[in-house]
Write a structure and sequence with these properties.
Length: 354
């Protein structure tokens, strides 16, 4: 079976495995000291060890990125630890370029060999990231891309598939009809904006579904709660909310669940199973999607190390092995694809712990 097909078919199993691994691991921390440090160390075609790799999510404190990045969850820092690199996670606390850029600059100043970045805003980040690339630093984006200033993008799933499936999930729940709203992350977020673009395309197939507004919770729980409350106040006939952000979908579910509109306004989007269990069980959320965030971080770290070790280039057709995840091949647009999103609902959510 071809690698990509195998990954497509095996995603639920991989997710289930991740939940077992999550339960079994106990180490924690945001930094992984190298097993052995030899910055020039490259043993006959092997990956280099002792590389300084900085993992820079949109923001710290977002449980999604804690899972994608941490040793405990088997994310990016776990991969770096296994490979003998010096890995650390750094960013600001707000999902904004003003908060993220100082962390990127500090990583470059510390002599980063590779950066693994989820971009808050490509146009704001690109001058800094391009300066790093010019100095020879490998820049891998994961989760949220900045196409003009990275070596490679590790994409969680097809952008089109995420956008279209979000709409079709909600459509099936509200019988293709009624007012809907989108509660996004920040207005500059490249991943959410790309998914929303495909949602709008897909909505053309549902003439009775009307997108009344798109609001932004900025991946901040307080702001997301406020905008979710605003949606219920301003749209008494609202039938559904799509929130393609783990922070937003949780806020929307909490607000709807606590209101008299529970079960009348259906919430879907991209969420972590642990944060959604309560709302799937009380009927606020019927189904939602996500990929395995830990696998995404793990894959991005392996890609960064393979590139920084000059084992691969970013050209289409280049292949590398990402430890327990197996072989991946660079596709068009200097992109590596993890797999399709997985749909969680009442019948399967109890199997997942992240
Ligand atoms: C939030 C972030 C992240 C996104 C997930 C689904 O945690 O905005 O970028 O991929 O949601």
């Amino acid at each position: 079976m071809k690698g990509s097909l195998r990954r497509v078919l095996f995603v639920p199993a991989a997710l289930a495995t991740a939940s077992v691994v999550l339960a079994a691991c106990s180490s924690s921390g945001t930094s992984t000291p190298a097993a052995s440090s030899s910055s020039s160390g490259s043993s006959s075609g092997a990956l280099k060890t002792g590389l300084k790799v900085f993992v820079i999510p949109k923001n710290l404190g977002n449980p999604y990125f804690t899972t994608s990045d941490s040793v405990k969850s088997g994310g990016a820092l776990a991969a770096l630890q296994t490979l003998g690199e010096t890995g650390s996670e750094t960013s600001g606390t707000a999902a904004t370029p003003a908060s993220q850029i100082p962390a990127i600059q500090a990583a470059i100043a510390k002599g980063a060999n590779a950066l693994v970045v989820s971009a808050t805003d490509p146009s704001a980040l690109c001058p800094t990231l391009n300066a790093a690339i010019k100095k020879g630093t490998t820049v891998v984006t994961y989760d949220s891309d900045a196409p003009a200033c990275r070596t490679l993008f590790v994409n969680q799933a097809s952008t089109a598939q995420i956008g279209t499936s979000e709409v079709s999930l909600l459509a099936s729940e509200i019988h293709d009809s009624g007012q809907i709203a989108i509660l996004s992350a920040t207005a500059s977020a490249p991943n959410q904006n790309a998914w929303i673009g495909f949602m709008k395309q897909e909505l053309k197939k549902y003439p009775k579904m009307k997108l009344v507004t798109t609001v932004y919770g900025n991946d901040d729980p307080t702001t997301a709660t406020q905008v979710a409350q605003g949606l219920l106040q301003h749209y008494p006939n609202l039938k559904g909310i799509i929130s393609p952000t783990t922070v937003g979908i949780l806020a929307a579910a909490q607000v709807v669940s606590a209101s008299s509109r529970r079960g009348k306004v259906l919430v879907t989007g991209l969420g972590t199973p642990d944060s959604m269990k309560k709302y799937v069980s009380d009927g606020t959320v019927k189904a939602f999607e996500l990929w395995n965030p830990a696998n995404l971080g793990y894959l991005a770290a392996y890609a960064a190390v393979a590139l920084a070790s000059k084992k691969i280039t970013n050209a289409a057709g280049q292949s590398f092995t990402a430890g327990k995840l197996g072989k991946f091949t660079v596709g068009p647009g200097h992109t590596v694809l993890l797999g399709p999103p997985f749909v969680f609902n009442k019948s399967n959510i109890s199997q997942f712990n992240f």
